[in-house]
Amino acid sequence: MNELSGLFSGPTTPTTPETALLSLLTALALGQAIGAVYMWTFRGLSYTRSFVFAVVTGSIVTCMLMLAIGNSLAAGIGIAGGMALIRFRTSMRDPRDLIFVLASLAAGVASGLKAWGPAILGSAVFIAAAVIFTYTDFGARERADGLLRVQVPANPDAERGLAAVLAKHTKSFALVTLREVAQGAAMQHAYQVQLRSAAHRTPLLLELERLDGSRDISLLLQEPTVEI
Fold first, then answer.
1. What is the pLDDT of residues 15-62, one digit of tens each?
2. Please, what's the b/e burial string for 21-52 (b: 16 or more CB within 10 A of its CB; e: otherwise)?
3. Tens digit of pLDDT for each residue in 159-212?
4. Is the pTM higher than 0.90?
5. In this structure, what CATH number is given to the domain that contains residue 150?
6. Strand partners, 177
7. 140 lies in a domain?
8. 150 and 113 in one domain?
9. Measured between alpha carbons, how far is 187 from 202 in angstroms, rounded to an integer?
10. Which residues contact 196 (CB under 8 A, 6 or more apart)?
């Protein structure tokens, strides 16, 4: 029990070559685990291998710094001053990327302080949270699937036919704009639509094309996972 509690006791263990190596290997293992989870849970188009490399190796660098500082206040001030001279110009547009970098650095700091218990436990909780929140779409809000534009004749029958097709293939639809075209002979509708499923995309467009007088039909999809 005392050995287990000692894992959470912080920087009380003297730094020997064996403990330094153990700290560095722990930092490497935790950095690899965090980097692997980032790869598995990444969504979007701006994936870079160099970022994953930075996540994995960042934990080793911070661990090395903490081992070098040890309990020396002077060493800590000196390293902090030296690091302040370095300008990091890499920008991260996604806050999620920043959190993964911080998690890797925190694992390295804890490992360097020889607080292996908090390092392992904290990384495990972070990884579990990242996986669960990604695959349960935590934080996502229900949104429209896309913007539908269609032009139909300006008469009640065409309006009713359009409404019937939309009700059949969508969960909900909301009129965004309505304007007359062809000197008032037709009306151009623009709807925000939420489809019943992705399988309804093609049938929706086909049925709209079969409406009398319909033309200029387009469905602009907005995918929530796309990043530029």
1. 788 888 999 999 999 999 999 999 998 877 777 888 899 999 999 988
2. eebbebbbbbbbbbbebbeebbeeeeeeeebb
3. 889 899 989 888 888 888 888 887 878 889 999 888 887 788 888 888 888 888
4. no
5. 3.30.70.1150
6. 190
7. no
8. no
9. 23
10. 169, 170, 171
